[in-house]
Amino acid sequence: MTNKSIEATQTKNHQNMILTPKKSDIIYIRRAHYHETDQMGIVHHSNFIKWFEEARIHLMKAIGTSYKIMEEEGVISPVVSMFCEYKTMVGFDDEVFIHIEIIDYNSIAFKVKYRVTNDDESISYAVGESKHCFLSKEMRIIALKKSHPHINEIFMAEFTKNS
Amino acid sequence: MTNKSIEATQTKNHQNMILTPKKSDIIYIRRAHYHETDQMGIVHHSNFIKWFEEARIHLMKAIGTSYKIMEEEGVISPVVSMFCEYKTMVGFDDEVFIHIEIIDYNSIAFKVKYRVTNDDESISYAVGESKHCFLSKEMRIIALKKSHPHINEIFMAEFTKNS
Amino acid sequence: MTNKSIEATQTKNHQNMILTPKKSDIIYIRRAHYHETDQMGIVHHSNFIKWFEEARIHLMKAIGTSYKIMEEEGVISPVVSMFCEYKTMVGFDDEVFIHIEIIDYNSIAFKVKYRVTNDDESISYAVGESKHCFLSKEMRIIALKKSHPHINEIFMAEFTKNS
Amino acid sequence: MTNKSIEATQTKNHQNMILTPKKSDIIYIRRAHYHETDQMGIVHHSNFIKWFEEARIHLMKAIGTSYKIMEEEGVISPVVSMFCEYKTMVGFDDEVFIHIEIIDYNSIAFKVKYRVTNDDESISYAVGESKHCFLSKEMRIIALKKSHPHINEIFMAEFTKNS
User: Fold this and answer.
1) For the domain with range D26-162, which CATH number is right: 3.10.129.10, 1.10.3720.10, 3.40.50.1980, 3.30.70.20?
2) Chain B residue closest to C74 (CA)?
3) At the top level of its lineage, which domain of life is listed (chains A, B, C, D) (predicted)?
């Protein structure tokens, strides 16, 4: 239950110094909807959890599979844990950039890291981390390496790229 | 697409006159949650549609069945149409009383009427009406009279009571 | 990599017949999110009401104002009534095209019509209609013609174009 | 016929052994709504974050204040961080008991711990933890000890009781 897991790993460099090559982020972009605000006048915190899901689904397409296909092939991937640290309030119609990365994968479970920023990354709205496992339709734990090797390869390739 | 369907049928009588016996309403009571407000400082209108669903599910229990059982027995009941007229804004933590009534039923479809009020009905927050059909798990239209006579009887009894 | 809504002009013509000039629709495009599905395996009906709001906000930008600016200038525009007829179920990750049109406007209130289709309009997912008024921050009814003539002009121009 | 959340005292004792006196939990009880399920056939994980908020608001009433009053007195209390670990899936119409406790408080911020169980606590659905600060309406950090001593006392008393 400790949440020290998050480091924002700010790679922004305003000074135009020579940089080591930067891994390209997968970024999911969307605007905050009016129906996502609350009477505090900002986006309700529960929506970040929904945005993280949208970003994961975007990531799966970006790396060459899709959560829709996975479910059709009999894999469901529930959330095991979810962490979010809120840093700056997001207002109605603000555009957010969700940088998403697979930071752990072992064929049975995976971890995802999120950074929510504005376009030029000068504002950090939130950081987050979630853990997910894989289940069969009968809700039994499966190892993709055995049950769905082609999906395993896609996840492993993406994870390896990042590490 | 015409929405003239709604009459609030206010039966309130502050003067304690002699009244013809009044049908007893089925009432679903709940409070407005903070996460249901928007930056207008009131409950977002989309939540009334969710509240109507909660009230329908409450009604099904109140009349002797339950939507959970219906689904387990292979009946799903999607929404065909939905109307809501918003009359008074609902604020955070306000308690709403949703008066709900089956106003039409014919074994293939049913109509429900909603009145959202405060406790003593001095405030009318909203009125609504929705139409629903019955489908099998294979998404085919079914007539409860044939497919599920015991559920048909429950709906018919409630509808007859009201008409 | 973005999830942007776009404005598009309807150019579809299956028969290549000579057509009378057709009014150009304003279209809001978006995908159904996983968190919008319910255990019926389809998008929950309450989300259409949220989508309609997103489409209205898209329309306001498309015609030259924005709901954000309107609120900043002291105009809020609550929903007076909402109607939706559900015709075809929408599944996870389906792309929907929400055709939106101002069908009535008189400086005090306006009506909007919605058609939710797939890309080539071969599927009609839903149709809807909503009514809205204008309030000051103090929740008093206002006539845009007097209080905000520049916004009045924008709405009137769009409405006149359609009628 | 109501759907009320209740406060209850934990009295469960399977073994009827002599127990050391146990702190009484504040418990928020509610049922999972149909509109909270997703196509996995379970409650969508984002709803736990909303339930935690409902439980916090319940707790504030239980200890002698209310979030509504706090906002009216100029205190808003945004979420700084949120953690949830999902242990057992919750299905439609399942009743959940959210045990909630203030585990840290220092006039500037507080931490809350959540345990989501069934009625006899034989099932653990989820555990969670969140951190919150206090802001003025102008979104400046405030210390309740100075700005709102009567609210400070209530929070401090509850925190001290638990520690």
Assistant:
1) 3.10.129.10
2) B40
3) Bacteria
